[in-house]
Amino acid sequence: MIPFVKAHACGNDFLVVEETLAHDKHAEIARKLCARNTSVGADGVEFLERRDDGSYFLRLFNADGSEAELSGNGTRCVAAWLAYSEGLKQVTLGTHGGPRACTTVSCEDTSFLIETGMGVPQVHPQAVQVEGVGAVEGANVNVGNPHFVIFVDTDDFSSHGLAWQALGEKICFHPDFPKQTNVEFVRVLAPGHIAFRIYERGVGPTTSSGTGTCASSTAAIALRDCSTTLEATAEGGTQRVIWPTPADEMRLTGPAEIICVGKVSL
Ligand SMILES: N[C@@H](CCC[C@H](N)C(=O)O)C(=O)O
């Protein structure tokens, strides 16, 4: 049995496991522990390394065992755990997508509101030729991990005659993205408010995504003239983004809640 912490951010749930317990079996552990019917269940596992110089580093493994550069929501879940268990209200967490500085804005017992510096996003328009569907116009956005953002104007986020989950899967696994990609379907509700759905790489449809919030907001600000302070609502809740200019770091504020701590068999 190994100790774990479970936390979620707008329903996007993560397990936090100490890196020292992984013994190079990260992928296997993630697949096993994320299984919803036979283990604790989660969208991913954040392996937390505590380095000798006092710094922290996170390795994120998706539910399917693939390694991602980072997670916005997962990073915030770890920051919430460090704030709760060790009183760290400001902490920088290294990731393969770059360092992410997290600040606790407010907290009540196990519920936290955290602002994270999410790096400087990169965005460019891209069209993907999907078999049986045709050209799908969107935006390629990198916020430390890869995203493809599609603007829609349908109430149910469907696009090109397909449910967003079905088109999301086709694009996630499209050969134009050899490492696969996260896919967001974005509706502009007002200059300062977007709604989106996410088909997450390594997971499938999820209720929220921190990097997905940033990617959707990046595309909406850069390509749809949205406000540089933007609210982004997914099925699991709303997060806020601030991106003053394209050269600035994007800042993301959202909730994270610790659910439980326990021990799980491997
Ligand atoms: N599955 C993603 C990483 C996780 C994203 C996460 N939900 C978030 O909050 O950012 C990937 O493979 O890039």
UniProtKB/TrEMBL annotation:
Superkingdom of the organism of origin: Bacteria
Localisation: Cytoplasm
Keywords of the record: Amino-acid biosynthesis, Cytoplasm, Isomerase, Lysine biosynthesis
GO cellular component terms, A-Z: cytosol
Annotated catalysed reactions: (2S,6S)-2,6-diaminopimelate = meso-2,6-diaminopimelate
Pathway field: Amino-acid biosynthesis; L-lysine biosynthesis via DAP pathway; DL-2,6-diaminopimelate from LL-2,6-diaminopimelate: step 1/1
EC number: 5.1.1.7
Site feature: Could be important to modulate the pK values of the two catalytic cysteine residues: H147, E200
Listed GO biological process terms: lysine biosynthetic process via diaminopimelate
KW Repeat (keyword) present: no
Residues in coiled coil: none
Heme as UniProt keyword: no
Binding site for substrate: N12, N62, G72, N73, N145, N182, E200, R201, G210, T211
EC class: isomerase
One of the record's GO molecular function terms: diaminopimelate epimerase activity
Oligomeric form and interacting partners: Homodimer.
Task of the protein: Catalyzes the stereoinversion of LL-2,6-diaminopimelate (L,L-DAP) to meso-diaminopimelate (meso-DAP), a precursor of L-lysine and an essential component of the bacterial peptidoglycan.
Family to which this protein belongs: Belongs to the diaminopimelate epimerase family.
NCBIfam families: DapF
Entry protein name: Diaminopimelate epimerase
Organism: Terriglobus albidus
Name of the encoding gene: dapF
